[in-house]
Amino acid sequence: MEYFPSRRPFPLHSLPTLAAIPDAQGKQFLGVTFVDYPRAGYLTFCEKTPPSEAIDPAFDSTVLVSHDLADRLATSLPAATLLRVEDPRAVFIDTLEYLRSNDLLGASSLLPKAPAVSSEARIGARAVIETGAQIDAGVIIGNGAIIYAGAWLKRGARVGENCVIGGTGISAYAGQDGKRREFPHLGGVIIGEGTSLGAGCIVVRGVLSSTRIGAGCIIGNLCNVGHGVEIGEDVWVSVGTMIGGHTRIGTGATIAMGCTIRDNISVGARANVGMGSVVTKHVRVGLSVFGNPAHSYPTILAGPAR
């Protein structure tokens, strides 16, 4: 479970964006979290009623909600502190911007506390590694790659030439006040042991959850992995594939060259996606799909087993 702790505890109403909210008085601020990962004293936001099976009466975060939604959630989430506002997402974004600009938030709970670059890593010419990136022993980073703070390359990972790991993606929100806001990317990028990224890959950092690629994966040249994507272990992704934000790719899945996987869907473990496919819906475990839009297809061998 991932969260973003504050540098120190302080009163919630001391935040300028929340000072005028009566229910914020007397509450302590400990950090921010995604609504799916509740923590006492942590701030999040919610814009729709969660499915009944997902409601946990012990949910104890402080939640920015609309007035109508607060009335519906008051009985189902008795342990939560509900802060009623007109535009929860806008207030949350403004709060994050204030916290970041005043250096009041720490890094993701999933990242090492004291990140460093191992002396046993091999760093190519003109590669740029920001302070705050964790590079483990045995990592190989190609010429011209850029590794941003908040990235963690685990032992034996390989990053090809001119990759960009941990940059920010598109996440814009048009508020009810007409102002367009960019949602801050708080999460990092975690690349598993022995995983290989080809030249020119882009792996975007997460917004409220880190982008994660499991151990033993092979990602081909010129692939784009969106924010908050989770890729399991031993996944094969061929050249020129784009994976939209918050999509989940199961362990052992294979995705052929030139595919487009939309955001917020899941591709099940051991699934196969044929060359050039456009995947717009969930793909079940072990299923083969092909086409635009992708549909079920006789067995495809899209990865190294072919």
Short description:
With 306 residues, the protein is mainly beta. 7% of the residues lie in helices and 30% in strands. It has 2 domains: 11-101, Udp-n-acetylmuramoylalanyl-d-glutamate--2,6- Diaminopimelate Ligase, Chain: A, domain 1, CATH 3.40.1390; 122-296, Hexapeptide repeat proteins (UDP N-Acetylglucosamine Acyltransferase, domain 1), CATH 2.160.10.10.
Describe this structure in words.
The chain has 306 residues and is mostly beta strands. It folds into two domains: 11-101, Udp-n-acetylmuramoylalanyl-d-glutamate--2,6- Diaminopimelate Ligase, Chain: A, domain 1, CATH 3.40.1390; 122-296, 3 Solenoid (UDP N-Acetylglucosamine Acyltransferase, domain 1). The chain is 7% helix and 30% strand. The strands form five sheets. The chain has a ten-stranded mixed sheet with strand order 6-9-12-17-20-23-26-29-31-32, with no helix packed on it. It is globular, with a radius of gyration of 21 Å.
